[in-house]
Amino acid sequence: MASKGNIDWCDGEKNEICQKIETLPKNVHVGLPDPLTDPVKCSLVKGDYLYFHYDCDGHDDRGWGCGYRTMQTMASWVYFNRSPVKNHNRIAPSLLQIQQALVTMEDKPGSFSGSREWVGAFEASLVLDYFCDVPCKVVHVRGGGAELEQVAVEELHQHFEKHGSPVMMGGDRDNSSKGILGVCTGDKGSYLLVADPHYYGRQQEKTELQRRGWVSWKRISSLDQSSFYNLCMPQTATKAI
Known about the structure:
By secondary structure, this protein is an alpha+beta fold. The protein has a single domain (4-234), classed as Cathepsin B, Chain A (Alpha-Beta Complex). 25% of the residues lie in helices and 22% in strands. The protein contains five helices and eleven strands. The strands form three sheets. Strands 5, 6, 7, 8, 9, 10 and 11 form a seven-stranded antiparallel beta sheet that branches. It is globular. The two termini are 14 Å apart.
């Protein structure tokens, strides 16, 4: 399996003229050991995707673009694993295209386009439906701790087994977007496989991203126990490859 994929990037600011950008790492979780030696249950993403992160297209979005980057990772999964898709020549919409789509759908005011405003799980559900014809299930988890273990973990197991696509996770106090690529449960708790979109810098191989913790297993108990969380789960309707 190739470690990288080429992108024909369509820039909405230039009338959708496509331009080549740097290749992005593909399937960055592959090769990462399970967090538990004897897990009760592990469920992982199925199929190919690209890892999008801060500034990966030359647009410096540090401090506000993490939700957009997670959306792009999810959209890339749809591109590789669903056929046909609405815009089959576009692996993922650009930041500006995402903002313009939310304005078009009247979810955001006109001033949102070109801004540095954040987006969350609900906006992701609108954008994936708009660009990819994929509806999403948004799961609200009222608090950390027990409810994350009881509600989010089971929802994620079911999602990866049925749909196989990456999931977007974010909250209020913990407002950093996370791409969720898997869930692993043991007798003493569960772990999430997280693709962190906050990486900024030159493109790295997946082994280096894993070594530096940008793709890693994180204990559920390490998340903010006082934050609510939302999960955006693409309902792909067809069996993932």
